[in-house]
Design a protein that fits this description.
The complex is a heterotrimer of chains A (about 775), B (about 280) and C (about 170). Chain B is α+β, with helices and mostly antiparallel strands and about 280 residues long. Chain B has twelve helices and 13 strands. Chain C folds into two domains: about 80 residues, Beta-grasp domain (Ubiquitin-like (UB roll)), CATH 3.10.20; about 80 residues, DNA polymerase, domain 1 (Orthogonal Bundle), CATH 1.10.150. In chain C, helix 2 packs antiparallel against helix 5. Chain C has a five-stranded mixed beta sheet, with helices on one face. Classes of the chains: A alpha+beta (about 775), B alpha+beta (about 280), C alpha+beta (about 170).
């Protein structure tokens, strides 16, 4: 017996740049998004939204609207056709429509269904709502003040269906969640330190801006049967929430997701489905509600955050301890806030050897639009702060950014957080790739130029529950049923590749159906970089199930044990002899017909898959950047952005790279351009793309260097780990550190031209922060 | 028709700004009068005797940008038009509509003021001309009477020893600071200067103090810096929730310096060795 | 009834869409994007920002890129409208479409029709566009998924393929 390990099987479909299976539908305009669907008799819904951040509704007069020809129904918070009008991912704090109170500017108060959008618009203008305006708290500070009005009775809030974070013990007030942990002896470590860096940081509310705004169509059959077509990322979570709202069995609710025009978390969990389904129920006809972009901007956003951090080290650059306090502004309703807070708390220490860590993070209610998921939440919030401090320590200890990280980064297998999954990546190898991509050793170009790198970890995978079904048809073609949503990342293509690989089929013989809870089986969610890793694993297992059925049939047909047979080139083989799949299936059923059904399932391997026991894998949030600053205007040009996708195995390398490019661009937006500005009345000042800058071609870095690292160290198919979020957090943090390297002290994102200019001016005038970089 | 419908009617050409305000319900006009079909209203021509460019009000930004005579004789104007908004707005939007809408961030308004353009307005009762500098009277207000339409924009060709430059700073969709400079240089000295700031206040502003500082001075880059310091204080800002006054002045200073330096260079023929207007 | 809801008399729109004559009764205030999507079933042009910034609604009017969301349908009268649905022919995808597919320039696909049409207009005017010309022409089309790199790649490939195709047809 040879001592050499068997070579890994040659992969024919995996690891190749298979063309996207949806590319042609999208490039011809045939791909249907929710807004492209028309149902017979469909009515159009529009919403009257609150102009007040906080108010008590004293009177509603809808009579003029109801009298308008073409208006079919008008719905208020007093006549919601739901068993329980409150819902919410983590906490059931959100009414379908405002009931007696409004809590943010833009909160839907009244819904109108009419024969056309224009008539619905007219009807809205005819509705009178009288309110008693109340003092509102629109900032974290105001919400935490001792005499601040309380948005919710937090102590008595019921947990949402998907809280998953353990017991919540809350004091009356505006805190919806508190996440805290301590490791080691923090006070001692700081007392012993040679170097301590301390700072306060501000991170903006950012709008995800997917090109497609939220669009939902709902249709009831009687009172017991609901179908919803929606631009949502998690159809099964939405299904459960709707079934709960209307006290229906889950199978009575069907959620269908057509092609999704981008999500990035803005379409995670339940957004417009409750209000649309309630209005449809009231109307007795299918109803569509389509957000405009300014409505979408007050439907969800990223949490703004304020943080205080301090980091301790020895004089030779060994990190000792970190202390973090972070407050996340979750807006008027919690949505996913607790999970964002928990993830941020976990990301705050950074992937380093610490003797001691103390983290406290709070989710705070304010009278502003609700915050929820956005790509790389948690890591985007806190990675840049911690990394700025690591670089500052490096400067004071005479090390550079690469050296201090090589000295302190965790190694594979070491504990990231107690009880959780150990580190499953080679971070030092990754950061060296970043420095190589930045030409770290070469002199910088002329001008005010900085180079920075950053590495962090994101608890990825969410809850590892997913199922898939493969149907092998009588003609040997395979149809895959999987509910992972195609948000643009190419998940369906990758799943097709997995089936093609496992069943030795050409990709053209694999069809992928997705996103219909009535047809495709349960997948928990699409997000948290989990599609390839978790849903993909379910797909692989379903395909493997088919393969073993084929081999079992082959065994009977060949009259040989299964071990003597292989599946290759759409047939089962014994030495030189083969029987193609259609013939096997015909032999099995005795006719040309029938089908084989394969089932794949993923569920937590340890414990219950709770947040604390995870994550499924650690997503490496890493990036590099070189920037040039125009001192006169403060404008920052990104000369170069570097990404490293530490993915275990790239099932489709070009799709991985495409994710990195898109994530890096969003990171550039987050770091330099994007900020939602609320005024003192809680009104969003920049609710249009005129004043909210989404990066365009003009904002691209001059050069983009992308790396894919494949160490086969993931739990997913072929050793894969997820991708999609790391570049955003990594590149955004790298830009912050690059600016610091350029001599621009940054404590607030985005580093707009004005902020950069002011930082430079302050430096020249001599109000220098401690430990400033020298050019 | 305008006289007939009164305030219920608006002149409509490209509609790029009008339709947005109507959709946002900030304005309401039951009647739109489409003037694009009036013959000749989009023509661009250069009169060699009067040395004057004539642009029909309904010429789109793209028409102006691509006009061979603009490219040859008024390159700064062409370059400015090529950078207005985005390609779709430039394809539909007209230069006349832009001036009449008088949005404070308008690029054409700023440069045309510095170029001493004259506008011809016509109504049922006749025509009259107005200098561009007098056309925009306030925040989104012009001297056009309701029954008049803007028909032509006339731009005199700058002198052979004049340099024209338009510089701006743009972060979001609209520029936040812009300066247009027309500098005439004779025997190494600045004999005339028109400096106009746009996008920082309610409407384009002639910067008379800045111009005074420049006149009579030697034509060199250091004058651009001197003048820019004057711009910083002279410019009137109208306040912006997105940027502070100090920063707006800094931007005006920066783009002002760059515009004046470029204009001086072009006036002295140092750019490409030929006159650039 | 408010003046806004008093429906004005309909007008007759005669236009050509993707080479086919179209004759419709429309309200004078009808927006081109809605006519295309709702009346003609051409849903490739999308509504996103609704304010001419993002380009998701880009269509070509006599070859010029326009924001259909802010164009009166009336403007199409007597003119040629081109939407994404008109690009592919009996021989398959248009070279620009094929380049977008080949260069992985498509992710969620919502911006794709707008980008493809803007590219078509650009390459008609600048067969070999410089980076600066691309930025001027396509800088007003937003994409949130791709980071633009693969789109620029697709544009370069499309330009090359169109040039060779033209070269071939001129030579023959």
């Amino acid at each position: 017996m040879s001592a050499i390990a068997a070579a890994p099987p040659l992969l024919t479909a995996i690891g190749h740049d298979a063309p996207r299976i949806d590319a042609i539908a999208k490039v011809t305009g045939e791909a249907q998004f929710a807004g492209d669907l028309r149902l017979h008799g469909m009515a159009y819904g529009r919403l009257l939204r609150s102009p007040y951040a906080r108010a008590r509704i004293t009177d509603i007069d809808t009579s003029r609207a109801e009298a308008l020809p073409g208006v079919i129904a008008v719905m208020t918070g007093r006549d919601l056709p739901a068993a329980d009008p409150y819902y919410g991912h983590a906490l059931k704090d959100r009414p379908i429509l405002a009931i007696d109170h409004v809590r943010f500017v833009g909160e839907p108060v009244i819904a109108v269904a009419a024969e056309s959008p224009a008539i619905a618009d007219e009807a809205i203008a005819l509705i009178d709502v009288a309110c008693e305006e109340l003092p509102a708290v629109v900032t974290i500070e105001a919400a935490l003040a001792p005499d601040a009005p309380h948005l919710h009775d937090v102590v008595n809030l019921r947990p949402g269906l998907f809280h998953g974070l353990g017991d919540i013990h809350l004091e009356p007030g505006n805190v919806c969640y508190h996440h805290t942990f301590t490791r080691g002896e923090v006070a001692q470590a700081f007392a012993a330190a040679d170097v301590v860096v301390e700072g306060q940081y501000t991170f903006p509310a950012v709008y995800q801006y997917s090109l497609e705004p939220h669009t939902t169509i709902a249709q009831w059959i009687g009172d017991d049967d609901l179908t919803v077509w929606s631009s949502c990322q998690h159809p099964f979570l939405v299904r459960a929430e709707l079934a709960d709202l209307y006290a229906l069995p889950v199978a009575a609710v069907r959620v269908v997701v057509p092609y999704l025009g981008g999500g990035f978390g803005s379409k995670s969990y339940t957004k417009m489905e409750p209000i649309t389904s309630a209005l449809a129920r009231k109307t007795g006809r299918p109803v569509r509600i389509a957000n405009s972009v300014d409505e979408a901007m007050v439907t969800t956003r990223r949490h703004g955050m304020k943080a205080w951090l301090r980091t301790a080290a020895t004089s030779d650059g060994r990190l000792l301890a970190r202390e973090v306090r972070a407050w996340f502004d979750t807006g008027a309703y919690a949505d996913n806030g607790p999970r964002v807070v928990a993830t941020g708390a976990d990301a705050a220490p950074g992937p380093y050897h610490w003797e001691a860590v103390q983290v406290d993070a709070w989710g705070v209610y304010t009278n502003t639009s609700p915050a929820g998921s956005y790509r790389a939440f948690g890591a985007s919030h806190l990675q840049w702060c911690g990394e700025l401090q690591v670089d500052e320590i490096a400067r004071r200890c005479g090390l550079d950014a690469l050296q201090i990280r090589e000295r302190n980064l965790l190694h594979r297998g070491e504990s990231v957080r107690p009880g959780g999954k150990p580190l499953d990546a080679d971070l030092i190898g990754d950061i060296r790739r970043v420095s190589a991509g930045l030409d770290w050793e070469t002199p910088k170009p002329a001008g005010i130029v900085g180079r920075g790198m950053s590495v962090g970890l994101l608890a990825a995978g969410a809850h590892p529950v997913s199922t898939a079904i493969v149907r092998m048809e009588a003609d040997g073609g395979a149809t895959l049923l999987v509910s992972s949503t195609e948000v643009g990342q190419g998940a369906r293509t990758v799943f097709g590749q997995i089936v093609a690989e496992e069943l030795a089929l050409p990709l053209e013989k694999v069809r992928v159906l997705g996103g219909d809870t009535g047809v495709t089986p349960y997948d928990r969610s699409t997000g948290a970089s989990r599609s390839t890793t978790i849903a993909g694993l379910a797909v692989l297992r379903a395909a493997a199930d088919i393969r073993s059925q084929l081999l079992a049939i082959g065994s009977r047909v060949f009259d040989l044990p299964q071990e003597a047979l292989t599946a290759r080139a759409a047939a089962v083989w014994h030495e030189g002899e083969s029987v193609p799949y259609p013939d096997l299936i015909k032999a099995h059923f005795g006719m040309v017909g029938g089908e084989l059904i394969g089932h794949g399932e993923v569920r937590p391997e340890r414990g219950s898959g709770s947040y604390a026991e995870g994550p499924v894998f650690w997503e490496v949030c890493i990036g590099g950047a070189e920037v040039t600053v125009d001192a006169e205007t403060g404008r920052v040009t990104v000369n170069k952005a570097v990404s490293v996708a530490d993915v275990g195995k790239a099932l489709n390398p070009r799709l991985v790279e495409a994710q990195e490019m898109g994530g890096a661009m969003q990171g550039i937006g987050n770091a330099l351009h994007e900020e939602m500005l609320f005024d003192e009345t809680g009104t969003l000042l920049n609710a249009t793309l005129f004043e909210y800058h989404v990066p365009s071609i003009a904002d691209m870095p001059d050069t983009f260097v992308s790396n894919i690292v494949e160490n086969a160290d993931g739990p997913g198919p072929y050793g894969a780990k997820g991708v999609g979020e790391g570049a955003l957090a990594g590149v955004a943090a790298a830009i912050a550190t690059a600016l610091a390297d350029a001599g621009v002290p940054i404590d607030t994102l985005p580093a707009t031209p004005e902020r950069v200019w002011r930082a430079l001016e302050a430096r020249e005038v001599g109000t220098v922060n401690e430990g400033e970089a020298r050019r | 028709m305008l006289a007939h419908f009164g305030p219920d009617a608006a002149v409509y050409a490209g509609g790029t700004e009008l339709l947005i305000v109507m959709k946002e319900r900030l304005a309401h006009f039951p009647h739109l009068i489409d003037i694009k079909r009036i013959p000749g209203l989009n023509e661009i021509a250069f009169d060699p005797e009067r040395r004057e460019l004539s642009i029909g009000a309904v010429a789109t930004h793209r028409d102006v940008e691509r006009s061979p005579v603009v490219r040859e004789r008024f390159p700064a104007l062409g370059k400015m038009e090529a950078a207005v908004a985005n390609i779709r707005v430039r394809s539909a939007g007209t230069i006349g509509g832009n001036l009449c809408f008088a949005e404070p961030h308008s690029d054409p308004a700023t440069l045309l003021t510095a170029l001493d353009a004259h506008l011809t307005l016509t109504s049922a009762s006749g025509s009259h001309q107005l200098p561009m500098a007098s056309f925009i009277t306030g925040l989104m207000e012009t001297a056009r009477h309701h029954e008049e339409i803007l028909v032509t924009i006339k731009v005199p060709e700058p002198a052979s020893n004049a340099g024209v430059a338009y510089e701006r700073f743009k972060l979001h969709e609209r520029p936040t600071a812009a300066v247009a400079a027309v500098i005439v240089v004779d025997c190494g000295a600045i004999t005339a200067a028109q400096v106009v700031a746009g996008s920082v206040g309610e409407r384009p502003q002639r910067l008379l103090e800045t111009e005074a500082i420049l006149r009579g001075q030697p034509a060199g880059p250091e004058m651009a810096t001197v003048a820019a310091d004057v711009i910083r204080d002279e410019v009137e800002t109208s306040g912006d929730v997105f940027e502070s006054e100090a920063y707006t002045r800094q931007l005006a200073h920066t783009v002002g310096r760059r515009a004046i330096a470029a204009a001086i260079q072009r006036a002295t023929g140092e750019e490409d060795g030929r006159r650039v207007a | 009834m408010s003046p806004e809801t008093a429906a004005p008399a309909k007008m007759h729109l005669k236009t050509t869409v993707n080479g086919r004559p179209v004759s419709l009764q429309i309200e004078p205030r009808a927006i081109l994007l809605d006519i295309l999507r709702d009346d003609l079933g051409l849903t490739g042009a999308k509504r996103s920002c609704d304010t001419q910034v993002c380009g998701a609604c880009t269509v070509l009017l006599d070859g010029s890129p326009m924001s259909a969301c802010c164009t009166l349908a009336y403007e199409a009268g007597g003119r040629e409208v081109e939407t994404i649905e008109g690009l592919a022919g009996p021989h398959g995808l248009h070279p620009i479409q094929q380049a977008f597919v080949d260069r992985v320039a498509i992710q969620c696909g919502f911006c794709t029709p707008g980008f493809v049409l803007a590219t078509k207009a650009m390459l008609a005017e600048y067969p070999r566009p410089t980076r600066s010309e691309i930025e001027d022409f396509l800088g007003g089309n937003l994409c949130r998924c791709t980071g633009y790199w693969n789109i620029l790649d697709a544009v370069a490939v499309a330009a090359g393929r169109l040039e060779s195709a033209n070269g071939r047809s001129e030579a023959s």
